Amino acid sequence: MEGIGWILTIILGGLAGWIAEKVMKSDHGLLTNIILGIVGALVGNWLLRLVLGSTLGGIFGQLVVAVAGACILIWGYRLIRSKT
């Protein structure tokens, strides 16, 4: 997450992971939500830079990117798990 501190990153990661958990109708714990949100933000920002050449700025923009990235991660995990 660009331009925000570690504590805000953890808070936004937890919130993004929780929102993604509700959107994708899955059940995770707090630590998993934080990790999903932070890694989801990394994935989302990477995809945005790849496609658009830039990313969304600000706290709200990063929250949206993190939720979208976390949803992609949950979807990918389900896809891999269903094939095994």
UniProtKB/TrEMBL annotation:
InterPro entries: Transgly_assoc. One of its GO terms (cellular component) is plasma membrane. Keywords: Cell membrane, Membrane, Transmembrane, Transmembrane helix. It is a multi-pass membrane protein. It comes from the Bacteria. The chain crosses the membrane at residues 6-23, 30-48, 60-80. It is found in: Cell membrane. Belongs to the UPF0410 family. This is GlsB/YeaQ/YmgE family stress response membrane protein.
